[in-house]
Amino acid sequence: MLEIGMTAVPKTADPRELWNFQHFLVAQCMYQTLVRVSESGRLVSDLAKRWEVDQAGMTYTFELNEKAVFHDGSGVTASDVAFSLARHFWPGSPSVVQNHLKSVMSGTDNLKDGTLPSGIKVLNEHSLQLTLIHPYPPMLYVLAMPGFSVVSKKHATSPTKKWIGSGPMNGNFDSTKGTWSLHAFDRYAGSKPKTNGIHIRGISGYPEIETLIKDKALDVIIGAPVSEVMEAKQFPGYNVTRTNSLFYNHLFYNNRQPLFKNSEFRRDLGHLIQSIAKKPASVTSFITYEPYYIPRGVMPGSYYQRTDIDITPDEFGKKWAHLTKGKKLHVVVLKNAYSQRMLDDFEAAIKKTGLDLQFDRIAVGEYFDILKNDKYDIITGLYVGNFPDPDGFLDPLMETSKARFGVIPSRDLFTAIEKVRYVTPAEKRLEEYSRILRSFEDNWYLVPLYRISVPIIHNAQLSIPDTSFRYEAELWNMFWSD
Amino acid sequence: MQARLKRSTSLSTAIFLPNFVISIVALVALSVVLTMVVGKLTTNSVDDRLQTTQRLFLETVSQDYLTGSHALVYRKCKALVSDKLVKAVKITSPTGQTICDVAAEGNRASWDWINTAIYYDEAQTQIAAQISLGYSTTISRQIFLNSILIIIAAIVVTALVQLLLSRKLAVSVAAPITTLADALNKDQPHESAVPAYEGSVFRDIREVGILFESIQKLFQRINEYQKQLVTKTRQAAVGEMAAQVAHDIRSPLAALESVVADIDQLPEEHRILVRSATSRVRDIANDLLGRKRKLDKESSGAIEADDARAEDVSVWLLSGLVDSLVSEARFQFRSRIGIEINATLGSGAYGLFARVNQAKFKAILSNLINNSVDAIESTGQITVTVGPDDAAHLLITVEDSGKGIHTETLPTLMQEGKSSKGDKGSGLGLYGARLAVESWGGRIHIDSAIGKGTTVTIRLPRAAAPAWFVPNLSLSADDHVVVLDDDSSIHQVWQNRFDSSQGKVSKFTVHHVTSPQELDDWISDHRPDLATTTFLVDFELLGYKESGLDLIEKHHIGERSILVTSRNEDKAILDRLEQLRVRLIPKSLAPFIPILVTNTDLPVANFNCVLIDDDSMTHKTWKLAVKKTANRLAYFFSASDFLARAAEFDRTARIYIDSNLGNGVRGEEISKEIFALGFQEIYLITGHSQAEFPPLPHIRAIRGKEPPW
User: Which CATH code fits B602-703?
Assistant: First the structure.
């Protein structure tokens, strides 16, 4: 049994309600998707044993693996898949991944509860067809997102409403303890899991992590804070794997506030914040200064060619004194998502500008309330790209997104994106995306700052999958070394 | 040999041909290996490249294909072909749908194909598409052919270089060696045969240059040695001839001298003339022998050896040394017609030995003779005498009739730096002679009178005769004497000696043999008589490989044999004599050796006188004297001989016994034994004064050595 500690343990098994990358790691154990991304980064079959894409690139026909069975022993059918995908578009869906499909799949708008969009057609028990509005090359990567996990329609629609999957492990949530127990499913259609069982428990952060490691109570810790505190820690008997992830940490303006209606003010404040954030003392080996909305490795090189402009607090204060006079700036940041030095410098710099400052360093638990209630002027925005494509990072910018970081005037952005989303070849498409995103970022609705490397603290004897450029570190593929 | 040489290969060919052939064979073998390796590497390289291309292409298009980006797949296929990485690409779905089918121009049938697939699953069980890559082997063939061309070019260039190098090496090594071989191959190397080479050998190969120079030097040395050899061969031939002539002369000379000794009938002047003539002949013979010895010493390096032994002192028969020395002097001064040099040896000198250094003794004597010659202005005589002084000493005198030495000069002559020749002499001669003689236990004395001449007397202690010495030939009736000599005149000498010594009572038999075969025959016919036979054997037997000593050794007759030879100074022969227990008579002394005959037919009781003396001269003197009386005298050379037969004598017989019987035997002591046997009339004879003897009660009287009659 593998003992895993997480800072964000899912409290439900409903794939539609999962939003954090840690939730998705648990979902990967319990569910299958039509296709998945292998450890080597290749798109491979999962529930669908084969598929075909028509010449136009708009029709995807999947043939399911007849051997795939849910944990209750019943076979996985095309109807289960259609149900699992369609429910993301039903009214009131909390799905944070729905937007990835909604704009490309036919008939997703105004879909009635319990119905299938026209873009999803069950051909027979083991075949279904997805039809897109436009050809969309990342389609299969979107379908590989754990948010689109396939559940048993029968159990999901039963009065008891159970979430039964067909993944490599069968999971049970102990709501009183807030823990998950996962056990290898011996009828799993794919390759067998490398561990027989996983026990997941929630952890708060330091100093609990240190105590647990000292007691050797955990084999793996995911979601540990990335501040310099993390870097300073010593974990005898444990290794720290730093994932080269698609995780960004930017600051978002509350663009509804009058103060931020002035784009030049937003820009200058952005430069001021960046000039603080890029100081060597502000970064750690887990926090890399990357003043781009999309982390390095996804976009063409031209996208990342920027010229930093340094503005001192004094300069800023003098320039914008007329605007800031008597104004109070409410900044909300997730503590431990930054280095303490950076936060201290940031607080001091803002005060130096003459602005009244309310600087709140909050825990994750408070974050969504603050965000939901617009109780901030500037707020932390942490997001993990779902796949190495700009589309994987756009959801937080959508006004309709469940994962948006405040109000961001992005309508023009997505209008422009829609025009180039299906451009071929891919390089051309990315160049268009780069141009559009650069133009959008020049509006300074947000201040791009960092890429975060997710630390995975694990027993030195434990082998973990490659996590480069992916948030997945498939838990069921962790195993003990000889 | 020459025929075989003609069939053999020249050195330059031997160097060049194998070198070149082996190099070419090695190059060809290397080329074959290189061709195979290049072929294999080319094939592997092309295969690797194709496989890499295939893997990369698969990786590139698989995701595009799986995500339905068929247009992208097609574009990548086209790029692959247009980049000439492959000739053709074909991708088909499992349903037979062709995603792309791109090919370059050319004959598809001549292309090879690699097939691979895109899979849906990780386990690679579900094929998503088939990919076929067509490629032409022309590329690898072209690479291979290019490589072969390069290899062939390399071989040709290398072969040419090898050809030049081999040729150069062959010329550099072969030319000088061939020159040497030609020079060596000449039958008669001579001065002009020293090889010469004008090539650049010394610049080319150091070792060959050294070899060439060394052989040149060798040739020069051979030429020098050859010249020396010719000279020495001639000298040796002359020496051999001289020795042979000397040998041939000596035998008849001995006969002549034997006769001359008794020619009383000739007038005095005739006797002198005959003696002078025989002396002259003997001088010539000695000179020839001296030249031979000198040559032998030069060839064997014995000169240095003699010098090294200058301090060696040993026992020498002085009459032999004096005889040869006087002979040499006579020959040396033969141009001084007015000077007569004589050696007076006689029977008294026979058996006189002294311990001297031979070389130094000769030098002293030669120096004395030279002094005497210098002292004679025109005519005169020089006489060298060897004779007994007393029982323990002998005297050598060199007497000349020269101008004499002043009385005042005489006492200083033996001093260092003084000379009788005034300023002409170094003064080292007599001083050195004195030191040498004194070191031998002797003394040197000079008497001189102005106008009369000078006499130098050397007195030396007598030494016991060596084992090989024969004091006399003691023969009895019924004895046999076998004379082996290749010269009939020696036979005649011995026969005359024996005839004169036997008288009427003698019955011993003399046999003459002239060759080893005759000796063999005689011995085989007279084996029972060997115990009573005395062999007189010549050392050198002309025309026979075996020497007299070889024959003596062969027949085991050493104790019964006497070697009669002129080589009595030859150390090697003397050593061998000792080994074989053979005795020796110098050939020049053959006329003087006493022959003692014991007449056993006559009852010993008839002898009323007995002489016991080791001196043959005394015997001879007494023999002549007794003939004139009625006495009958029996002769014995040793006391032991007499004692062996003493019982047969009448006790009234008078016994005359020498005081000094040689070898430390004293007559006064022996006479006590004789007295004890009952003999009353015992007389001790001596050359010394009677006063020197203590009272001897058993002796009737002590008297001189002259006959009592």
Answer: 3.40.50.2300
**Strands B583-586 and B561-565, how do they pair?**
parallel
Look up the CATH number of the domain holding residue A189. 3.40.190.10
Query: Does the beta-carbon distance from B95 to A42 stay under 8 Å?
Result: no
**Residues 79-138 (B) with a CB less than 8 A from some CB of A:** 93-95, 119-123, 126, 128
Chain B residue with the nearest C-alpha to that of A54: B68
**3 state DSSP class of B113:** strand
Check if the interface score ipTM surpasses 0.85.
Answer: no
| A33, A43, A65, best to mutate vs chain B, most B CBs in 10 Å | A43
Q: What percentage of chain B has pLDDT greater than the value 90?
A: 13
Name residue B174's amino acid.
A
Mean pLDDT of B516-533: 89
Alpha helices in B95-205 (DSSP H): 138-185, 201-204
Fold of B11-143: Beta-Lactamase (3.30.450)
Per-residue pLDDT tens over the stretch B444-477? 989 888 888 999 999 999 888 887 888 778 777 6
Q: Are A87 and A143 in the same domain?
A: yes
For the segment A89-96, the average pLDDT, to the nearest whole number, is 93
Q: Distance of alpha carbon B488 from its chain centroid, rounded? A: 34
pLDDT at A170: 95
How far apart CA B454 and CA B452 sit, in angstroms, is 7
- Residues of B within 8 A of A50 (CB-CB) are 94, 120, 126, 128
Q: Which of B69, B93, B120 sits opposite A44 (nearest CB)?
A: B120
At residue B308, the pLDDT reads 37
DSSP A356: E
* Token pair of B375 as six digits: 């002292």
- Is the pLDDT score of B628 beyond 50? yes
Residue B264: is its pLDDT beyond 60?
no
**CB distance A49–B126 less than 8 Å?**
yes
CA distance B145 to chain A (A): 41
Which residues on chain B are in Cβ contact (under 8 Å) with A41?
none
- Contact residues on chain B for A465, CB-CB shorter than 8 A: none
If you search the block for the tokens 């194909």, which residue do you land on? B113
Q: How far is B58 from chain A (nearest CA, A)?
A: 12
From the CA atom positions of chain B, what is the Rg in Å? 54
Averaged over A384-394, what is the pLDDT? 86
> Binning pLDDT at 50, 70 and 90, where does residue B520 land?
very high
Indicate whether A267 and A386 sit together in one domain.
yes
- Which residues in chain A touch residue B124, judged by CB atoms under 8 angstroms apart? none
Give the minimum alpha-carbon distance from A70 to chain B in angstroms, rounded to a whole number. 20
- The answer to whether the CB of B409 falls within 8 A of the CB of B424 is no
Count up the domains in chain A and report the number.
3
Alpha carbon dihedral A129, A144, A383, A288, in 10-degree steps, equals -140
Instruction: Give CATH superfamily name and number for B473-595.
Output: Response regulator (3.40.50.2300)
